Amino acid sequence: MRSMVFAAGLLVAGVALTGCSSGTASTADEAESVDSSEESSSAEADETEGAIHQAWVVLGGDYTYDELKDATDIALMAGGESLTESARRSVWDSILSVKDGLVEKGYPGPDSMVVMQCIPDSISSRGVAITEAVAYCSLETAGIPESLW
Q1: For a tag on the chain, would you pick the N or C end, based on fewer CB atoms within 10 A?
Q2: Is residue 85 one of the residues assigned to a domain?
C-alpha cells in the first residue's frame, strides 16, 4: 500500500514539476523563436549554456552533446512537445527531480540517459503523457518492480 502511494506521488510530482505543455508553443516560446536575434543563438552559445549542456555536465560527460540532444528531441517529439530550449530544460528537470526523489526514498537512482531513451517507447506502449513516461521509465530503469508501483 505504501509503495502504491509512493508511485502515485512520483507521478503527481513528475506532472507538477515538469510543466511540459501539450505540443503547442506558449507565447514566451513563440517570442523566443521570433526574437532570436536578441539572444545568443549561435550553436556555440547553445552548447555551453543550454539544457543539453547542463545535462552533459550533470551526467559527467558520459554522452556527447549530440547524443543528449538527439535523445531529448526524440523524446519530446514522441510526447508531442515543441523542440524548444524550455521544453528540453523541462524534461531534463523532470528526469533529475524524479531521480532525486527515488534516491531520497532509498531507491537506486536510475541512469538519466536510459530514462530519456525509454520515454518514446513508454509513451507509445502506455499511451501516457511525457511526464508520466518520465515516472514510469525512472521506476523501470531503477529496477523497482512494477508490483511496488
Answers
A1: N
A2: yes
Q: Tell me, yes or no, whether 118 lies in a domain.
A: yes
Interacting residues of 94 by C-beta distance below 8 A, sequence separation 6+: 14, 17, 18, 20, 131, 134
* DSSP one-letter code for 50: S
End-to-end Cα distance, the chain: 9
Give dist(CA 149, CA 143) in Å, integer: 11
Dist CA 139 CA 149 (whole Å): 8
Tell me the residue range of the domain where 11 lies. Answer: 2-19+51-148
Q: Residue 53 corresponds to which amino acid? A: H
Distances (CA, A) of 18 to 2, 3, 37, 56, 129: 24, 22, 28, 19, 11
Q: How many structural domains are present in the chain?
A: 1
